[in-house]
Design brief:
The protein has about 400 residues and is an alpha/beta fold. It is built from twelve helices and 16 strands. Strands 1, 2, 3, 4, 5, 14, 15 and 16 form an eight-stranded mixed sheet that branches. An eight-stranded parallel sheet has the order 6-7-8-9-10-11-12-13.
Length: about 400
């Protein structure tokens, strides 16, 4: 396949991209067509790597379609309503909803997703089995990593410890955690310790929901980072949300961020959770971490579509240009230069969380995964939430949109 007149993010001139056997083989000006080669004229549109969503809940998606009657306004109420929804899960309905979400994400140019799947005594391994089935069915269009996630806590939810080990045996790729779900700080630490024990026995990455409230005394982030240092797990641990640090004093937060940097810790912020941070007085809780400070310190920060239409959050499209734009607003990135920071958060920073960064991106030798977006640059792509004209994975067209009209050179 040959893609003509592609505008790459870091290049001024338009280039041609040659793809053979599913990999980029040449990226230059004016590559000549070879016999029987498919040609796509990008017409000066921006061509990006495909997007990566590093934090999602494919077992929960679309459980709130149809406006189920509930008055969910706080995080605690959301967890309660999710318990009710979870009791209705079957392998088949989890698979069906997960498939729908994966296909929606792919239509927006995402070809890699890391998803948590609840493991607890309410749902046992039903969610995991459903998402594993969806993963298998979608393997040509999207790479899925599954996190075994103790949403209800481990020691607060009898049986979860054993179920986590079973989930790893059953095919989970990553071990998750939710230390704040434990009743005491002591048990939150025990929770983190067990997560490291499981991670080391299976040699897998760790991806936990950490300090996702505005509790100024929450300390699981620094404890997890310290355990990362002790276990020499540098670069393999990700904290989702890490919100509490935004409410802690600057001196303390700075020290924690220095430790995060030291252990090459990944942070994933999910700006749409501001919808569920609680009904509090003004100024309202935003529900994100110290995004700008972390970025300035060189900590790997990504952003994600945490949920789509479930008991926690009734909106969400799965479009990285959607939640990326919200992340830009919430962190007040409003210059052409800072658009690149947000763009990195939905592409290479997210890919680093999934440990695929060395093969990721539009470079000769890498897997040929790319999006052709109907915009002249990434700023316009975000502003318009521009259509994806083509999504290409492993050198094959998996999405084609013929009706794009916004950007015509
Ligand atoms: Zn989450």
């Amino acid at each position: 396949m040959l893609i003509k007149n592609a505008k790459l993010v870091d290049r001024k001139e338009e280039l041609d991209i040659l793809i053979k056997d599913g990999r980029f083989t040449s990226i230059e000006k004016n590559i000549d067509k070879e016999n029987e080669m498919d040609i796509i004229d990008a017409k000066g549109c921006i061509v990006t790597p495909t997007f990566v969503n590093p934090h999602m809940h494919l077992d929960k998606v679309y459980t709130a379609v149809g406006g189920r009657e509930s008055k969910v306004e706080t995080l605690e109420e959301s967890i309660e309503i999710m318990h009710d929804l979870k009791r209705e899960y079957t392998v088949e309905n989890v698979k069906r909803r997960a498939l729908r979400a994966i296909k929606d994400c792919v239509s927006f140019g995402t070809t890699k997703i890391r998803t948590s799947v609840d493991i607890d005594n309410i749902i046992d391994l039903i969610g995991l089995k459903g998402v594993l089935a969806a993963k298998e069915e979608c393997k040509e269009i999207c790479d899925i990593q599954i996190i075994a996630f103790p949403q209800e806590g481990i020691f607060t939810n009898k049986g979860t410890e054993e179920l986590l080990w079973e989930a790893m045996e059953a095919g989970a790729d990553v071990i998750g955690g939710m230390p704040a779900a434990e009743w005491t700080d002591e048990y939150s630490k025990k929770h983190v310790n067990l997560v490291f024990e499981i991670a080391k026995s299976y040699d897998v990455d760790i991806d936990m929901h950490i300090d996702q409230t505005k509790d100024i005394f929450a300390r699981s982030l620094e404890y997890t980072a310290m355990r990362t240092l002790e276990e020499n797990y540098h670069g393999r641990v990700t904290g989702g949300h890490c919100t509490s640090i935004s409410y802690q004093n600057d001196a303390h937060a700075k020290k924690v961020m220095e430790l995060l940097k030291l252990v090459d810790f990944n942070v994933c912020t999910n700006p749409q959770v501001l919808a569920i941070m609680g009904i509090d007085s003004e100024p309202r809780t935003r529900g994100v971490t110290r995004i700008r400070e972390m970025v300035e310190m060189g900590i790997n920060v990504a952003t994600a579509q945490d949920t789509i239409c479930d008991g926690f959050h009734i909106f969400g499209t799965g479009d990285p240009l959607d939640y990326g734009l919200l992340c830009a607003y919430i962190s007040q990135y409003n210059t052409p230069a800072s658009v690149k920071i947000i763009f990195n958060m939905i592409t290479k920073n997210a890919a680093k969380i999934l440990s695929v960064d060395d093969k990721y991106g539009i470079e000769v030798g890498n897997k040929a995964d790319l999006n052709i977006i109907d915009a002249p640059n990434i700023q316009e792509a975000f502003r318009l939430r521009a259509d994806r004209k083509y999504v290409i994975k492993n050198g094959k067209i998996i999405v084609e949109n013929k009706s794009t009209t916004k950007f015509n050179k």
